[in-house]
Amino acid sequence: MRIVRLFRKHLLALVAVVALLVISCNADLALPTYMSEIVDVGIQQGGIESPVPDTIRAESLADLELFMTEDDVALVEAAYAPADDAGIRAYQGTDAEKDEGSELAAVMATPEVAVLALEQGVDASALAGTSQSGDGPAAGAAMTGTLDLDAVRAAVDAGLVTRDQLAGAAESLGEQMGQMGGSILAQRAISYVSAEYEAQGIPAADV
Fold this sequence. Notes:
By secondary structure, this protein is mainly alpha-helical. It has 2 domains: about 1-45; about 55-205, no CATH class. It is about 65% helix and about 5% strand. It has 10 helices and 4 strands; from the N terminus they run H-H-E-H-H-E-H-H-E-H-E-H-H-H. It has helices at about 1-5, 10-45, 60-65, 70-80, 95-100, 105-120, 135-140, 150-155, 165-180, 180-200, and strands spanning about 55, 90, 120-125, 145. The protein has a two-stranded antiparallel ribbon with strand order 1-2. It has a two-stranded antiparallel sheet with strand order 3-4. Helix 6 packs across helix 9, helix 6 crosses helix 10 and helix 9 packs across helix 10 (about 180-200). The chain is elongated, with a radius of gyration of 24 Å.
């Protein structure tokens, strides 16, 4: 009780000390999260936080939609404005819909990884989902050897491969990458977005 009487004249100072201790503890706990964001987003991802680009070329979005289901295509189409005179489509959704953990981000990430792989040339076995979908041998025959986007577009135009088969193949590829580490898929999707910005002539500093 004597201690209480001693502190009675210093209540404001005591409250300030407690408040400062709480702030200090919260800062110490938050520091690892901030450091992780600096390394992951600021350094590895070049400041790009989401696999949903602010702007994307119409032909690039069409390539991504090859690897989406009809429902996913509808979701993505609703998120982007029509192409302008330069063929650029601007994101028109909310920030929450664009966040890395959102449904839209999940829908776009896997096709971005698949398209990025195809742009670099990929063995058809990496997209084995097309020949395992049970839709006939034509799909398996169309997706053999080393694949690129031109070969995939030609197969789709010829009716040898359906969008559902490609969506299943991309999902299979994403699951394989996910088994190696959840962040790998996200980082590859971010790499696609970074390359798309570069193709549009957008400096990394302006992202």
